[in-house]
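Researcher: We're teaching a course module on how sequence relates to structure. For the next exercise, students receive a sequence and then see the predicted structure as tokens, so they can try to spot secondary structure elements on their own. Here is the exercise chain.
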Amino acid sequence: MTSSLQILTNIDRRGLVRSFGSEEEALKRGNVKGTATIYPNHTISFEIYPTGTINEWSTILRFNTNEENCVKHGDRSPLLHFHANTLNLCIKYGKDGAGEFNYGIEKVPTALTKFQWSKIDLVVQNQGAKDESVIVVFINGQFAVEQSLGFRSWVKPEGTVHEVWASENFYPPAPGVIRNLAVYTPLVGRTVAIYANTAKSFLFVHESHVDQWRTNVTPADVSQCTLDGIKFKVVDAGGGYVALWNLYKKRFLGINNDGIVECVKVSPAGDNADVFDQKCTWEKFSITESPLFKGLYTIYVPGPVDYSLGVEPVSYKTYGKKGQYRPHWQYELFSIHVVA
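Model: And here is the predicted structure for the students to work with:
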């Protein structure tokens, strides 16, 4: 069986990453891993090494927006567990008024193997016209199952923070170990604003210049901001990279060979198009989460240009810094906010 979403997703990791670390950790009751910001389209990815089964539900992961078990939308967003005496994943989503009855995948057909690592990717895609979610499960990179929920899995507003448990307090933990837990939010096709925490302001395009930082917009109100100078549409640039098309200037952000940050490259399809010419090099970016500062990202143009986007510590002007990204250097780290 081939998923209708398989070609579309291919586990798109060109975007925001919330990583919970690569360390191996035994599943245990009441273990809060931290929080993750969940958007309508996302992938929950992890590896699990089951060591046995028990004679009741056993939980792997729970994403929750509150402290309830199952009676409200967002209580299980999702809950991943095994049924009694099996290693078949069960994936549940809570819904208002559903009570104990939850929606999702009751039993993934492919069972995991005891004493063997398995990589799980749970891909969630929102069907915009219907405002409902389709969930797709991959095991070790192979399609396992697809299910339409019939409603949206995500909790409004977009970008709601969820608490992440491995396992939880309501049911015993599944016997086993997990590692490499992460939440990926694909950005291609979305519009974002780029915030410099050191300057406490957003990247702002004025004419062709990108050396001004807009200080009267905060992360709390950026989704309501009408200023197109701070908004960039994320475009597929090929090879796993993205391009950033400014809505005001209608040009692509770039860093030239002199390290100058500018917004001058027009689309080959015309002034009002966001189509990227994949032969371009100055406008092709890699967006990578810092392993030291979770939720902050480097925005890097790979070789032969080989520059990282940064902001000067005193003047707050933008610059391109030669050399591979430096995940410890906070003047070259940014938070990225999805605005449309």
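Model: If you want an answer key for the exercise: Confidence is low (pLDDT under 50) at residues 1-10. The longest strand covers residues 176-186.
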